[in-house]
Amino acid sequence: MDNTDLLSGYLLTCAAISLSVLFWFTTMKDQLFAAPIAQLGDFCFDEKVVEVFPDMIQRSVPGYSNILSAIGMMTARFAQPGSNLYDLGCSLGAATQMMRRNIAHADCQIIGVDNSAPMVERCRQHLATYKSAVAIEIRQADIQAVEIENASVVVLNFTLQFIEPAERITLLRRIYAGLRPGGILILSEKFRFDDADVSDLLVELHLDFKRANGYSELEISQKRTLLENVLRADSVDNHKQRLQDAGFEHIDLWFQCFNFGSIVAIKDKGAVA
Ligand SMILES: C[S@@+](CC[C@H](N)C(=O)[O-])C[C@H]1O[C@@H](n2cnc3c(N)ncnc32)[C@H](O)[C@@H]1O
Fold first, then answer.
1. Whose CA is nearest to atom 27 of ligand 1?
2. CB 206 within 8 A of CB 258
3. Which residue, by CA, sits nearest to atom 16 of ligand 1?
């Protein structure tokens, strides 16, 4: 067996684990926008969304389960003994659970943060069904107000896109300051693209992905209208520049599928703590 076989075996195992994480959640089908809605306001993470969230995110975000698997793999490499790991915008705790399963040090603590009360309540219920030596605290709070300290891994899995663009740099600076040297931020986002042809292609491919997952044209268009004012996507270059401005020394895109992807930003091992 060579290294490629080992890696494929590992990736398959990770994919199976992340799928089991998704099935561990309620699997109610997302039909929230299947019927015409008279007044389309702004999208919010309320009780109705909580009920269908695992199905919604899996059928809407290309590469979601691959990203969850890799969050587990990166946690295994980057979690430092006695440190904190943060899942900012944790929703139902899918990334929290992947981190918990992959931490090699029982003296670490995972802090999941979300400002949606129904998300936090359901997240706590899910996580309580699993026993683990690693301590977990799920806080209902604004991620912009949470103190980041003694951190080795910070995850922003499709959350920064909901923060006011002008306020993103402040949050990233606080994350950088709260990371130990050698710590990592995993930042997954929906991206926008400056080149109109590339943008059209990737947006269309994403729509094909949603159609293939059973969403109707009405569901797609109503959800797009609801998200218009609350999800503000940046380009990959904008993200990289902002991460550099926040202090991160090592930054790159490690995953992309259509207009969704994930970036790693690492605080240099020799940086001041
Ligand atoms: C797309 S979901 C994140 C998915 C989740 N990270 C996962 O991997 O399954 C975005 C989450 O961010 C939360 N959120 C948005 N803005 C927030 C803020 N300012 N503070 C805390 N949570 C926030 C929402 O309530 C929602 O649960």
1. 91
2. yes
3. 162
